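Incident review: delayed structure delivery

Summary: a single-chain prediction request sat in the queue longer than the usual turnaround. Root cause was a stuck worker, restarted by the on-call engineer. No data loss occurred. The affected request and its eventual output are reproduced below so the record is complete for anyone auditing the incident later.

Affected input:
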Amino acid sequence: MEEVLEKLNQHQSETPSKWREEAEFRRANKSWIRRSQKIAVKILSKIVRQQKTSSCLFSKCYCYITTNYKIENYYNIIAPPK
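Output delivered after worker restart:
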């Protein structure tokens, strides 16, 4: 038993694991994460269907994203997940 503990101690990381905090974050933000995934899949499938490049998509969406961000920050809006 002591040999096993010695080996575990030898291979122990110097920095503590943050898996619990990351898991709690994912649980707390589950609906936002799911919503983001759905949006990403929709965008990706549209890109594939229209055979667009990512730079083309970026140039079209950049204005929308920055405008949305500025409006949300100005009015201190946080949209609820659907």
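Verification: Residues 39 and 68 are 16 Å apart (CA to CA).
Action items: add queue-age alerting; document worker restart procedure.
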